[in-house]
Design a protein that fits this description.
This protein has a three-stranded antiparallel β-sheet with strand order 4-3-5. It is elongated and about 75 Å long. It starts with a strand and ends with a strand. It has a domain at 34-106: Ribosomal protein L7/L12, C-terminal domain/Adaptor protein ClpS (Ribosomal Protein L30, Chain: A), CATH 3.30.1390.10. It has helices at 47-58, 62-75, 85-97, and strands at 2-6, 21-26, 34-40, 77-84, 101-106. 20% of the residues are buried. Helix 1 (47-58) packs across helix 2 (62-75). It is 36% helix and 30% strand. It is an alpha+beta fold.
Length: 107
């Protein structure tokens, strides 16, 4: 939530001018936290299956899904997406429902 207050000065505004509201604070507590959806390498999922799942769950292109899959394959894990917590939880659950190993981590 953004708190707005009027600009105030000790003196009255000049004739023909008005006080303009200014943004005073943007409190962090009202911003939704972001999470990484992490895909892990496993020894049983075919590469084509992983690519198809990433395309279906996130709407990634085949090229991007392939890059994420290769990173997980080579490094053991890859960040598949960064998004709001509710979406991250849903997408992690969807990946897991396809037999993939995934988790989320707050950033």
């Amino acid at each position: 939530m953004i708190s707005i207050s009027e600009s105030r000065s000790q003196q009255s505004p000049s004739p023909g001018t008005t006080n303009v509201p200014t943004v005073e604070t943007l409190t962090r507590e009202h911003l939704e936290d972001f999470y990484e959806v992490i895909l892990y390498n496993d020894d049983h999922s075919a590469m084509e299956h992983v690519i198809k799942c990433l395309m279906q769950v996130f709407g990634h292109s085949a090229e991007l899904a392939g890059k994420i899959m290769l990173e997980a394959h080579m490094r053991g894990r890859a960040i598949a997406e960064v998004e709001a917590e509710s979406q991250a939880r849903l997408h992690r659950d969807q990946l897991q429902s396809f037999g993939l190993s995934a988790s989320i981590a707050k950033i």
